[in-house]
Amino acid sequence: MESTSHSHSGVVRKSAEDCAICLDKIQAKKTLKCRHSFCSECIDSVFKLKPACPICNTYHGEYTGTQPPGTMAVSRSWQRLPGFEHCGCLVIQYSFPSGIQGPEHPNPGVRYSGTSRTAFLPDCKEGEKVLKLLRKAFDRRLIFTIGRSVTTGLNNVITWNDIHHKTNIEGGPQWLPGALKMLRMTMLTCGYIAVLDIQIQNICLGFKRSSV
To answer: Rounded to an integer, what distance in angstroms lies between the CA atom of residue 82 and that of residue 91?
Structure first.
């Protein structure tokens, strides 16, 4: 009697010897570090789109996003952020020219409009550490993407991805600990090492103490 096996993606296999991608018997078996096995050709095709196991979603290698070409510039200001009145702030300026969507975007060959965004961090030791992480995320094309704007409803525009930023100096909640938690989750999802996870947790504690 054949047994069935369920993956986290909802795919049902007849047995553990079947490939979770093509659902046939595994050919030229390739086993990942997470110990899940697939047809070599099947998993290679999946990794071209996303280097993650289709069963457990464990990332293998370095993950990069779909952020279009742009620049990230940083300057300093005397203005103070709520909860960090003891220091000025770091002003992050993201700039993106207009361009054509690539194969990794929703509508390859379709034009998208350029944009610029401004964000703020406290100009202190903890803020510098977060800035360093954001630079890494920017270099890995993780901060922005191209898609549908939640605020305007327009398609084929540059939008924020899943890393939260403070975009206004005044108002808003004491966002930093929550934003750092989101940053931590994003970095882990994208394959950052455990040491970086510990570092971000320490930064969160530093922000909590600073905002008391």
So the answer is: 15
